[in-house]
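Intended use. Records like the one below are meant for learning the mapping from a protein sequence to its folded structure. Do not use them to infer anything beyond what is encoded.
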Amino acid sequence: MTDVTRTELDAQPLPPEPRRAVFYLIDDLRGEYADYMGTALTALRDVAERLVAIVDRRMGAVDRARLAELVDEIVTVPEDAIGPLAYPSAVTGMGERIGDFDEVVFTGNSWYGPVHPLTPVVERMAGRPVDMWQMTDNIDGPTEGFPEEGFPDWDLSWVWLALRRDAIASREWRDLWQSGPKSQQEVADALAAAGFTAESAFPARGYPRGNPVVFAPDLLLEDGFPFLGRAVFAQFPPFLDRHAVLGRRLLHEVEGYGFDLTEAWRDLARTVPPNALNAIAGMLEVLPDAPGDYDPERPFRIAVIAYVPDVGFVDEMLARLSHLPSGFDLYITTGDGGRARAIEMKVAAVADPPFASFETRVSWVKDGRDKASLLIACRDVVLGGKYDLMVKIHGRVSQRKTPNMQEYTRRYLLDNLLGGDDYVRNILALFQKQPGLGLVFPPMIHIGNAIIGRGWGAYRSAAEELCERLGVRVPLDRVSPLAPFGGMWIGRPEAIRRLAEERWTGDDYGKPGRRRYVELGRVQERLVALVAAEAGFHSRTVLTHEHASISHTSLEFKVDQMSSTTRGYPVEQIRFLHRLGSTGHGGVVALTRMYLRNNHPRLARALLPLYRLAFRGFGAGKVLRTALRPGAAGDSGEGTS
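Structure written out for the chain above:
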């Protein structure tokens, strides 16, 4: 190919029927083909004479076969070479054939869509006398990354950069890559500096922020921008909060344009940490106990799986379940045969029951409680394929909680799942409208509980081990998982199928240190939404109006108090506090460590073994002091979770 410099020719519009090659880079953390890519490639087919997919070696044979039906060529690069450098590599691989095309487009799986028709935009820009053009540019520079919070500054595949024949044949294009990978904007800026003319179909200078794909996606779409950028959903949620980027409103607007988000939701569920996605997309639903969108002509086949620790819970259970549409099947589990017979007699005596049938089963795994009752005693119900939805509830209470705490926790969980006839139907309507919705449960409880900030507790490492065993590759949230704390939810059996397919036994459950998994039931509870996400189902949280009022005002006041001594926006406060690390009990060792982490991080890392030794010594001393305290031998208090 002959080198072209910008001084030889002036930029020209494309000929009436241009020959265009499109390179679609699949730069995915999972290395898989996803359905939304098929929608994108089908649209690109309309503007491309040659459509090339760039993948890495992780992609399996089945995914490659699906991809091969949509593209003309698949270029495979090593896993460590996937990214912007794959573009020039693929161009080089085409050899002299690249000179046959009037325009070469570099794009990839960085967007969902097209939300609006793509062809009119491409045809409009074909008439422009330019050497290159972007869908939109970025004059703000790279978006800030938050690697310590689990959101690194990683570049997705490019959104859209089109190079005309002269630019792709230039020495400048080839020389650009000598120093390593480049972002789309870096390439465009470098070629422009070399004298190549450039434009944007939707120039960033026309929007309030210079990176409109992230900060003004709604305004871009309003102007006919064809793509919904995935970059919005790759940001640290407090960073979006600072800039008032509202994912929930954005997604509603996209639906308003007639775009089906089912494929996007499936991808987001599998690639974004669930709790982060919950915050980015505003996935809390505050539902009224009033008629809504539920369609009684499309009823669900519902199974209720209820763990009943004693006969006293039966009346409340039946009162709550009466809010479900009649005709569901009720499976009651309990801990021993005598109790099962008493419960069965009480339920059988109910006149005009709301359920079509009921069955009582003994869940003999003592330490498994409601988790073992679901995954062992009722495994056949989950896997049988007979039901569209399951309602999982229980009547157990923690003896470590005060009566007030017990009452609030019970009401919080049951009210927000089974709070009234119309309220329940509004939950069911969510499942009718969203085929990708897998689970619904109340948000993390924070009144009378100390879960916030420590949702993983001591179970993170066990959760990672169990995820590996189950083949769950969804990213884990750093601080707390999105989970049905308290163990009650409504969901599709397919969403938790992977969890139920394991052959759990009584030996898997037990006291800490005595079984394979540390309190397996608590680990499973924290993984329910992750297992659903691996299957492509997203989860939503729900509240009644009353509980939303109670929860928000309490949370607002607590956040206000906790933020009172730290300057800046929440994103800055969070980054500062995370850099300091755990406060422990505020003793001199912890405070010294925090000071060193903030002001002398290298020294702090060097002293970390000494800190751990001091921490263990403090713990041993505390145990010894407790043992030697007068009257300690007679102490018999309940521990904390």
